[in-house]
Amino acid sequence: MKTFLVIIFFAVAMLAASLAFVRGDRRPIAEKSFALVELFTSEGCSSCPSADELTAKIQRESNGKPVYVLAYHVDYWDRLGWKDSFSSPLWSQRQRQYASWMKKGNVYTPQVVVNGKTEFVGSDERSFRKALQQALSSKSPELILSVKQFTATSALIYTGYSPAKGTALYLACVQKAASIRVSRGENAGRTLSHTNIVRSLQQVVPAKAQVSIKLPTGFDSSSWEIIGFVQDTGSGAIISASRIALMDASAKI
């Protein structure tokens, strides 16, 4: 009887391994915690600098932890005396999409959204830390991303993401820091410091587990980075996120 059970065990194990090989699996899908912090801000908003500073503080404190910051500069403040150096209607549209997902009546700055589920005023440190704690206490499937090759204008990225119905993979090109002197508007006379400014956001569909993306003007591996995330297109919830280590690229094209 014991011998029979051993034979059955090995037969089942070999069948599982065979199925994994057919699917192309190389290892079980790991799970990890993460927090994707999306800040909606503007240089023309007098209450935004405090949120920018708090986000930068959180970023510094989270060094080594899976906390990924994306700062979107919206454009609806631009008509009020100062055009934000990094604003885009695309970021305003993304914020409106969150308002729709969360059934909010309007948009505002500064606003922070964590993992696509929790939103609050970006300068509210208590809410910020509570949302981070909740996000980092739960685990989700790990998003595997790595850069294979890159130049100043393009990058070839490996992704372990398998397209699933109702989800989308995004890659954000992020400028890590900038300082801007504001001469007009609500922040006239102030020099504002920014952290992890989103300069492009591309929805991608990997082919053969890799994707090629265009890089914004001025991109360099030392002062920029790429952050990827998978989002539920029905609810806005972030399913997984990861940062790409550009300095690990083995070759350049």
Whole-number mean pLDDT = 87
Query: How many individual helices?
Result: 4
* Weakly predicted, low-confidence segments: 1-28
- What is the H/E order? HEEHEHEEHEEEEEEEE
Would you summarize the structure shown here?
By secondary structure, the protein is α+β, with helices and mostly antiparallel strands. It contains 4 helices and 13 strands. It has a 4-stranded mixed β-sheet with strand order 3-2-4-5, sandwiched between helices. The chain has a 4-stranded antiparallel β-sheet with strand order 10-9-12-13, with helices on one face. A 3-stranded antiparallel β-sheet has the order 7-8-11, with no helix packed on it.
Tell me the layout of helices and strands.
Blueprint: H1 2-23, E1 31-32, E2 35-41, H2 48-61, E3 67-73, H3 89-101, E4 111-114, E5 118-121, H4 125-136, E6 140-141, E7 145-150, E8 154-159, E9 167-181, E10 191-204, E11 210-214, E12 224-232, E13 238-244
Parallel strand pairs: 2-3
Antiparallel strand pairs: 1-6, 2-4, 4-5, 7-8, 8-11, 9-10, 9-12, 12-13
